[in-house]
Design goal:
Radius of gyration: 22 Å
Structural class: alpha/beta
CATH superfamily of the largest domain: Ribonuclease Z/Hydroxyacylglutathione hydrolase-like
Distance between the termini: 5 Å
Shape: globular
CATH topology of the largest domain: Metallo-beta-lactamase, Chain A
Largest sheet: 7 strands, mixed
CATH class of the largest domain: Alpha Beta
Number of strands: 21
Number of helices: 11
CATH architecture of the largest domain: 4-Layer Sandwich
Number of domains: 2
Helix content: 10-25%
Strand content: 15-25%
Length: 411
């Protein structure tokens, strides 16, 4: 078996890993776009011969989760190459594509946790659930030619599903190679707060304000659960923007706060969607009208999920005197604050009595202590990707092997 990182040994996001068996079966793990620069998505064809251009040379693509830097380029995969995605990740990806006017790849195959997928009677891929800020993320065990490679995808153990991490590693057992994300290698030795810590912090903040505007990723379901809990315990109505409501309802999990099965969760329909096509509104807007009776839920105390595109909606609330004692909770990666759109949004909200911007966030990635737990697998080589400081992993684990993009490793 041969392994090659086509992209991602010295950058965060946009990672692409290739594995080729001795029989010539070829698979790809993750096909994501680069992280956006000033909110301009770098969604360009990576021009990989046999995968996205030319004649088909690959047999399958496996996607670890629904974040754009892992799934964002699958529309370029050539016809005839199977693309495997966990079902709820496919739902999230499809909704995100629809709401952002991005082309959707409908032809994908489902992969289920702990169910083996056999490609050409040769390579066996087994997905395992892993904790991350994207719902139902996967790590992948790849077996071929008597060897085992574990591709971690993005992971952590300080979230709600973090307790599964060590038992999963023990279940997988010894492997020959680990390809691990190393996002946090450049971020010092900080031990990240848990999602339980976030709930406690949110409750303390929510008590001090009548209105709380929440800026977070709609794919971070654990964070939605946490802020919903904080809102309820501080006597606030919990309101999801239309995009978030579409996600929480579509996941069909009664433990996820959503307006369909929770009688205390509502939907805010941003004004920008009123100009959408009838076809869009029929499928994604009209079903939520019954959850958006604004007079019944916008009172003096609420927690409203917002997007940077919702300035006009915030202005509307201000003009109706529904913003009196408010804050904006920022619950995303710190780096996004440097984007032009985010800076503009922060300046705009201050015009509408939202003067306090409060960070309540924890990373979706493994801290250094968690990366150290990979030693359970006794791998002969551990390869860091999804990082700008790959050499730092040698300070945490033994047998670290540094690859460059397109360098081939014999497993």
């Amino acid at each position: 078996m041969k392994l090659k990182i086509l992209k991602g040994t010295s950058e965060i996001g946009g990672c692409i890993t290739e594995i080729v068996s001795n029989k010539g079966t070829r698979i790809i793990i993750d096909l994501g776009e680069d992280l956006p620069d000033d909110n301009v998505s770098k969604c360009e064809n990576p021009n990989i011969d046999g995968l996205t251009i030319g004649d088909k040379k690959y047999d399958a693509v496996f996607i670890t989760h629904s974040h754009g830097d892992h799934i964002g380029l699958i529309n370029y995969v050539l016809d005839g190459i199977d693309v495997y995605v966990e079902p709820t990740s496919k739902i999230i990806y499809s909704l995100l594509s629809t709401f952002t006017h991005k082309k959707i790849r409908f032809k994908t195959k489902n992969m289920f946790f702990k169910k083996k997928i056999i490609i050409n009677d040769d390579i066996i891929v087994t997905p395992y659930i892993v904790d991350h800020s994207s719902y139902n993320s996967s790590m992948l065990l790849i077996e071929a030619d008597g060897k085992k490679v574990l591709h971690t995808g993005d992971f952590r153990n300080h979230g709600v599903k973090g307790k599964l991490f060590v038992p999963t590693l023990k279940e997988i057992g010894n492997v020959d190679i680990i390809v691990t994300e190393g996002t946090s290698l450049s971020r010092g030795n900080v031990k990240y707060k848990t999602e339980e810590d976030i709930v406690k912090e949110a409750k303390r903040v929510f008590y001090n304000y009548d209105q709380v505007f929440i800026l977070q990723s709609s794919t971070n379901i654990d964070r939605i659960r946490g802020f919903y809990k904080a809102a309820k315990e501080t006597d606030k109505n919990f309101i999801e923007d239309l995009f978030t409501s579409n996600i929480t309802v579509s996941l069909k999990n009664d433990s996820i706060p959503n307006p369909k099965t929770f009688n205390d969760v509502y939907t805010w329909i941003p004004r920008r969607y009123l100009d959408k096509s009838f076809r869009f509104k029929k499928k994604y807007l009209f079903p939520f009208l019954k959850y958006s009776k604004q007079k019944s839920y916008v009172n003096n105390k609420y927690a409203l999920m917002v997007k940077t595109s919702m300035i006009e909606d915030i202005k509307k609330l201000y003009n109706k005197n529904h913003i009196t004692n408010a804050c904006l909770v920022y619950s995303m990666w710190e780096g996004y604050k440097e984007k032009v759109e985010m800076k503009t949004f922060f300046e705009e909200v201050k015009k509408y009595r939202i003067s306090d911007i409060i960070d309540i966030h924890t990373s979706g990635h493994a801290d250094k202590e968690t990366l150290g737990l990979l030693s359970f697998l006794k791998a002969k080589k551990i390869i860091p990707i999804h990082t700008i400081k790959k050499e730092e992993l040698s300070n945490i684990l033994d047998n670290v092997y540094l690859l460059d993009d397109n360098e081939i490793l014999d497993v």
